[in-house]
């Protein structure tokens, strides 16, 4: 979890980032909910986060085939 918290500084630098929550379900699955200013900021922000070299230690902990990314509007 420390590596996830360490990435907060990266997200804080990305335009449109608001906040995020990370939780772990009873079955061990991790869930991250990230809030962005709008849909464009979310998609551009994800690309910026993935490309940032300081994200690598966090991303290396994740099996790429286990990731599901979904976008939705907060109402």
TrEMBL record:
The organism sits in which domain of life?
Bacteria
What name goes with this protein? ABM domain-containing protein
The beginning of the lineage is:
Bacteria, Pseudomonadati, Pseudomonadota, Gammaproteobacteria, Oceanospirillales
């Amino acid at each position: 979890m420390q590596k996830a918290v360490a990435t907060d500084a990266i997200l804080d630098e990305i335009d449109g980032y608001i906040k995020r929550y990370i939780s772990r379900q009873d079955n061990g699955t991790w869930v991250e909910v990230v809030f962005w200013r709008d849909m464009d900021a979310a998609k551009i922000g994800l690309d910026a986060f993935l490309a940032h070299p300081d994200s690598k230690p966090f991303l290396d902990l994740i099996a790429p085939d286990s990731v599901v990314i979904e976008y939705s509007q907060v109402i």
